[in-house]
Design brief:
single chain; alpha+beta; Outer membrane lipoprotein wza fold like; three-stranded antiparallel β-sheet; 25% strand; elongated
């Protein structure tokens, strides 16, 4: 009887301790305190493209102007035909003819009047100003946007190739150099024979390829 009684006492004492253990939980480190950077994590940047080293902003380009901690001043804008963009609070700012870094400096300077130490990021979303043109005996004449270095041969391929009766030996690339128009000859048949490959020049914005 004494053995049984001691066993019962042990069970009775153990039950409250078990119940207590089930009620007490120790928070994990992540639950105990918020991370040190909570509330200051930067928002995700809009997706952009990487412009070439010689890129300057032009009409019809689309830009994202992002202000750190000043969401109301951030905007996605299209460069107007007069070369300007309009931003909340800052109004019109000249953008055409500037590099993204130069525009960032301009926007930062204008924002200093309203924000203490503004942090500005310029993101290029579309380079619509970097257009080249191809006309004449190709399957898809028209304008194309240079999103990467593009040669004459590559532009012809983008335009669907030459038509059957195209004069392959007398293709011309018209380019504005200063106030003058310069013509560069391009012989398609030579390129196909791997001859005079230097004539397959990299195109510049504003070039026009004429396929007679």
């Amino acid at each position: 009887m004494r053995v049984l009684f001691r066993g019962l006492v042990f069970v009775c004492l153990a039950l409250p301790m078990t119940a207590l253990a089930q009620q007490v939980t120790v928070p994990s480190p992540s639950e105990a305190a918020p991370p040190a950077s909570a509330g200051v994590t930067p928002p995700p940047m809009p997706a952009g493209i990487t412009p070439p080293p010689d890129y300057v902003i032009g009409a019809d380009d689309i830009l994202a102007i992002v202000f750190w901690r000043e969401k109301d001043m951030s905007a996605e804008v299209q460069v107007r035909s007069d070369g300007k963009i309009t931003l909340p609070l800052l109004n019109d700012i000249q953008a055409s003819g500037l590099t993204p870094e130069q525009l960032r400096e301009q926007v930062t300077k204008a924002a200093n009047k309203f924000v203490e130490e503004p942090t500005v990021t310029i993101i290029v979303k579309a380079m619509n100003s970097r257009k080249v043109f191809i006309t004449g005996q190709v399957l898809k004449p028209g304008q194309f946007v240079l999103v990467a270095p593009t040669t004459v041969m590559q532009l012809i391929a983008m335009a669907g190739g030459l038509q059957e009766y195209a004069d392959k030996s007398n293709i011309v690339v018209l380019r504005a150099e200063g106030e003058q128009q310069v013509a560069h000859r391009f012989n398609y048949e030579d390129i196909m024979k791997r001859k005079n490959l230097r004539q397959n020049i990299v195109l510049k914005p504003g070039d026009t390829v004429i396929v007679p």
